[in-house]
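Input record, target 12 of the design panel.
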């Protein structure tokens, strides 16, 4: 990709910083978000997003063979549930569920995030491979389920308040000043800029996540699994099985000769899902973002001082002072002063009222000064500190005033406010610059200038992006273009605009504008052998090795089913060995991976079966020699785990019911574009 005259500030997501951004104090809510297994802004704040579907993929994705041999057969197990898609036009939304929309950006961002997580364990994993394994469809299912919950929550009138959103943001460690340990607006704005969010879009998404969370919390309120259910579940989860396995390593496959070009070409054609390049587009983009322009705006120090002084005078720099005070209506000054003396001596106010016969005093609690009916009394009360008493002559006579509580928020000094004020003034100036530039740009375009000529005349940044996928991945490097990936409007326009044509001038973000031209389109096609030879040959070799091992597995399994011991079979096949272990459901040990243990818990006792073991390339013929049920008595940890599973079952059932109740529409074209599928048009 090349850029001319201007290079925007990178806005790539930083998962570590994102994870540190917000920490909600409620552990109960944290658990609920984890159970949902749905992508949301809350999940990185809790550092707990791990859906079962993704865990399965990660476990299987540790070696390249998983893509071709292991992952594909278990696609059906990935999805939470199936949805009866009605493929139809949905505007610019990938899916609609009732009144809720799942945008192209929602799908693309979630898919890319999960692919990157997979790549941490298998760097060679591509988005196309993960999608072929079922990840893309599962992401759609999860987002549609999330939209169904949002739709129901909205219909019920559930909403997140501004105070709730503010509390989350203001408590985020990443947004705290290192000097005051208080919320720092400048740090918040910088984080938004670097992560590619606007304040409005970020806070709107956070508000939506909170609304869904409140609905789920209400649905799970009082959900307690029956005692019999818990006992049976404990026996099920605590069950152990003794497993003996004949391990058949890949080395037994022997040497695999290099394939010729004809063989590789045929292999690529047979597995086109892994070797098909998506549609590629080369675009020229002109965009003007006030947030980027503001970085170049110089703000005069005197302007900052002037704005600070004005805000201080109008009380905008801090919360308003508050007072809680008592006032006794007295007939004269002497009586008022006597009450003050008794208060200063420590006498209880109720005793004073009884002794003087003046009745109970008037009490104003937590009021601002303007809310005090008598302005003279109000001024005096706000001059006094907590515990202070004073005789005051108000408009209607003498009063004895006693301040029970005084709240005088500290006004931040100029130095602590300078960065925030500078950002504000720079933003205001940037908006004027943007409008002036747009006026000049449109004037030049009206005179027949090209995109490049008009951008140069108006001083607007121009960017050229070489061939990229519809979801903004560079073909040359496979890296995401983070400056585009979070701009849904730009990606939609790039996908929808025909080759050689320009899009309309379109607003995006907060006061930003863009226009683009699609310079060239490369249709989806099967990758040339020369470009994928190394990858194709590696996969072909893995397939050959697995096919050869399968012959040994089949023979060993037949002998075991005939009653021959695993030790005897191992003795007759050099390079194999027998190992044993006793494991509970979900446990692993050495070559006894989740794939092997899972197969063992599905098998009958003393009935041989085959499975994958170790690095998933190793094959195994195994037998369950003993089954021991778990204890029916529950300890606290087991009870918590069962309750959590029970609540998760409720949420899944709720999601299914909501999806049956709503009209679900899927735009297949936008779905495929968001997932980077090769057949997207």
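The sequence produced for target 12 reads:
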């Amino acid at each position: 990709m090349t850029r001319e005259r201007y290079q925007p500030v990178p806005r790539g997501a930083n998962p570590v910083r994102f994870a540190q951004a917000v920490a909600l104090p409620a552990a109960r809510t944290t658990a609920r978000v984890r159970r949902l297994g749905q992508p949301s802004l809350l999940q990185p704040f809790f550092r707990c997003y791990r859906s079962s579907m993704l865990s399965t993929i990660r476990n299987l994705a540790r070696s390249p063979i998983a893509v071709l041999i292991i992952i594909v057969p278990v696609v059906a197990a990935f999805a939470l549930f199936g949805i009866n898609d009605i493929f139809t036009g949905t505007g610019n939304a990938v899916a609609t569920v009732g009144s809720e929309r799942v945008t192209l950006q929602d799908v693309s961002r979630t898919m890319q995030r999960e692919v990157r997580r997979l790549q941490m364990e298998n760097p060679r994993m591509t988005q196309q491979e993960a999608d072929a394994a079922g990840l893309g469809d599962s992401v759609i299912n999860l987002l549609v389920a999330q939209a169904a919950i949002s739709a129901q929550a909205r219909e019920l009138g559930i909403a997140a308040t501004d105070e709730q959103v503010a509390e989350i943001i203001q408590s985020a460690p990443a947004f705290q000043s290192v000097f005051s340990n208080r919320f720092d607006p400048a740090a918040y704005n910088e984080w938004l800029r670097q992560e590619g969010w606007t304040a409005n879009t970020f806070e709107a998404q956070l508000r939506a996540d909170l609304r869904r969370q409140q609905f789920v919390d209400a649905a799970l309120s009082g959900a307690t699994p029956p005692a019999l259910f818990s006992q049976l579940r404990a026996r099920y989860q605590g069950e152990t099985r003794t497993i003996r396995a004949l391990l058949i390593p890949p080395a037994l496959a022997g040497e695999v000769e290099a394939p010729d070009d004809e063989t590789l070409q045929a292999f690529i054609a047979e597995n086109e899902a892994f070797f098909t390049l998506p549609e590629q587009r080369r675009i020229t983009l002109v965009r003007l973002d006030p947030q980027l322009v503001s970085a170049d705006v110089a703000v005069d120090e005197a302007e900052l001082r002037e704005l600070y002084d004005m805000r201080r005078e109008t009380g905008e720099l801090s919360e308003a002072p508050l007072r809680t005070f008592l006032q006794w209506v007295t007939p004269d000054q002497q009586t008022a002063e006597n009450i003050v003396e008794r208060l200063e001596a420590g006498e209880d106010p109720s005793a004073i009222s009884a002794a003087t016969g003046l009745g109970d005093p008037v009490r104003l609690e937590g009021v601002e000064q303007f809310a005090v009916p008598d302005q003279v009394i109000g001024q005096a009360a706000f001059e006094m500190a907590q515990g202070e008493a004073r005789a005051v002559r108000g408009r209607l006579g003498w009063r004895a005033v006693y301040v029970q509580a005084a709240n005088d928020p500290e006004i931040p000094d100029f130095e602590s406010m300078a960065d925030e004020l500078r950002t504000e003034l720079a933003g205001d100036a940037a908006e004027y610059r943007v409008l002036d530039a747009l006026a000049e740009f449109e004037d030049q375009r009206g005179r027949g200038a090209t995109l490049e000529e008009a951008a140069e005349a108006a001083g607007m940044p121009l960017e050229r992006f070489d061939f990229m996928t519809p979801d903004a991945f560079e073909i040359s490097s496979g890296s995401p273009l983070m400056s585009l990936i979070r701009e849904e409007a730009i990606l939609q326009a790039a996908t929808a605009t025909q080759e050689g044509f320009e899009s309309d001038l379109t607003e995006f973000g907060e006061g930003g504008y863009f226009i683009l031209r699609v310079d060239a389109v490369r249709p989806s096609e099967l990758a040339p052998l020369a470009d994928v030879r190394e990858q194709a040959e590696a996969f072909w070799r893995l397939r050959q090795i697995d096919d050869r091992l399968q012959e040994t597995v089949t023979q060993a399994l037949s002998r075991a089913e005939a009653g021959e011991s695993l030790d005897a079979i191992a003795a007759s096949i050099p390079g194999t060995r027998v190992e044993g272990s006793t494991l509970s459901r979900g446990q692993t040990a050495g070559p006894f991976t989740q794939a092997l243990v899972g197969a063992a818990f599905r098998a009958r006792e003393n009935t041989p079966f085959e499975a994958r073991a170790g690095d998933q390339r190793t094959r195994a013929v195994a037998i369950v020699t003993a089954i021991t049920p778990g204890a029916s008595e529950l300890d606290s940890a087991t009870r918590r785990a069962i309750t959590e599973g029970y609540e998760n079952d409720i949420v899944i059932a709720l999601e299914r019911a909501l999806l049956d109740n709503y009209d679900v529409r899927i735009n297949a074209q936008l779905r495929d574009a968001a997932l980077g599928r090769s057949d997207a048009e």
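The chain has four domains: 2-238+640-675, 239-279+523-628, 281-298+428-520, 321-407.
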